[in-house]
């Protein structure tokens, strides 16, 4: 069981990394058209210029993603006698860039698509990949994190395993400087794990989501 868990963690991490490479490419990041020189001195490391340059280097981005965080969550939903009165999991979007989700054969997961809740039918041996809040922030809104929920049911129990991936817990997540210009102003505040923890311990998370709290609302359309 333990070995299977470790294998699963490794495989999802590798899959996450290759998906992120494709996503970086779609955002215009390529080895050949990004800076290769990274300022090294402590003096430089204290200013924004250092961070901008570091983030524009493809190898640095890939390394930060490879060294990033991974949270594994096992969800068990027992049968519920009155499923219409509750959710297995209320509507939310995920922490992180991408979530790789394995669900058993019992239906329950729904995503919000064009204001409608759509059931995601389980496919054996396959992952559902959900975009999380950090990818929306990092891409300055080009990728949208997906609202999803889990319905309860009265007959069968259901199990899912979610693997959530982001940068290190100490890292600041912010719109990539390369994606910000006059036509695309910065749309999200810088954020880190401490902001997230503070948010979930102080808000009524059933009615709002974390991402809403990070939007620079005056310019967001
Ligand atoms: O159980 C599911 O299908 C979804 C679980 C989920 O959304 C989560 O763990 O964040
Ligand atoms: Fe989720």
UniProtKB/TrEMBL annotation:
Domain (Fe2OG dioxygenase): residue spans on this chain: 67-167
InterPro entries in the cross-refs: IPNS-like_FE2OG_OXY (IPR044861), IPNS-like_sf (IPR027443), Oxoglu/Fe-dep_dioxygenase_dom (IPR005123), Plant_2OG-oxidoreductases (IPR050295)
Biased composition (Polar residues): 39-49
GO molecular function: metal ion binding; oxidoreductase activity
Assigned keywords, A-Z: Iron, Metal-binding, Oxidoreductase
Cited Pfam families: 2OG-FeII_Oxy
Gene3D superfamilies documented for this protein: B-lactam Antibiotic, Isopenicillin N Synthase, Chain
Region (Disordered): 33-54
PROSITE patterns in UniProt: FE2OG_OXY
Family stated for the protein in its record: Belongs to the iron/ascorbate-dependent oxidoreductase family.
Name this polypeptide is given: Fe2OG dioxygenase domain-containing protein
Native organism: Lactuca sativa
């Amino acid at each position: 069981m333990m070995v299977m868990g470790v294998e699963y963690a490794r495989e999802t991490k590798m899959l996450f990394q290759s998906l992120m490479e494709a996503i970086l490419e779609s955002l215009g990041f390529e080895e050949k058209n990004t800076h290769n020189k990274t300022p090294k001195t402590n003096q430089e490391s204290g200013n924004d210029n250092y961070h901008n340059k570091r983030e524009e280097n493809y190898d640095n981005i890939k390394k930060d993603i490879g060294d990033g965080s991974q949270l594994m969550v096992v969800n068990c939903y027992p049968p519920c006698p009155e499923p219409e009165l509750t959710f297995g999991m209320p509507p939310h979007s995920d922490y992180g860039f991408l979530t790789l989700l394995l669900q058993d054969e019992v239906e329950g997961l729904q995503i919000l698509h064009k204001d409608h809740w759509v059931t995601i039918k389980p496919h054996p041996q396959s992952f559902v990949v959900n975009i999380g809040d950090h990818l929306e922030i990092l891409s300055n809104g080009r990728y949208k994190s997906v609202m999803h929920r889990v319905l309860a049911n009265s007959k069968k129990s259901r199990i899912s395993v979610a693997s959530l991936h982001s940068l290190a817990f100490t890292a600041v997540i912010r719109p990539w400087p390369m994606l910000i210009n006059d036509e695309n102003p910065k749309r999200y505040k810088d954020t880190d794990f401490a902001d997230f923890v503070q948010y979930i311990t102080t808000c009524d998370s059933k009615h709002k989501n974390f991402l809403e709290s990070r939007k620079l609302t005056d310019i967001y359309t």
